[in-house]
Request: fold
Amino acid sequence: MLRLGIPVIGVTDIPRAVAFWTRALSLVEAEEWRSETWRTLHHADGSGRALGLMRSDSPVEPHPRLHLDLFTDSAEEQEAEVRRLIALGARAVEWDLYPPDPDFVVLADPDGNVFCVVDLGHAPSGGDRPAT
Reply:
């Protein structure tokens, strides 16, 4: 039976990416499938795989078709998390596709991969709040 696995992020520097994403999302590096070109990150509570990091020489896409959304529950939490992620090595992105009154902030990880920090307390970009 086919089932969805984990999101995989292409990175140029595996140790830097491990350091960022483990701290950003409270994940732990696993030995599973570990190689020079791959790391698996697990949930710290032991509930399983969360994210894959794969060595890539491909250029970063400025407007990727697929990206990560990280959720917060309020504007205050969103602001705090954006500050924390920037302190960990993320950077703010000049995003030219923001809708009016956006519920998300676009950041890039240390490799330049864009992701969003979404305030679920604010109706998600033109839709209803997803069920948790």
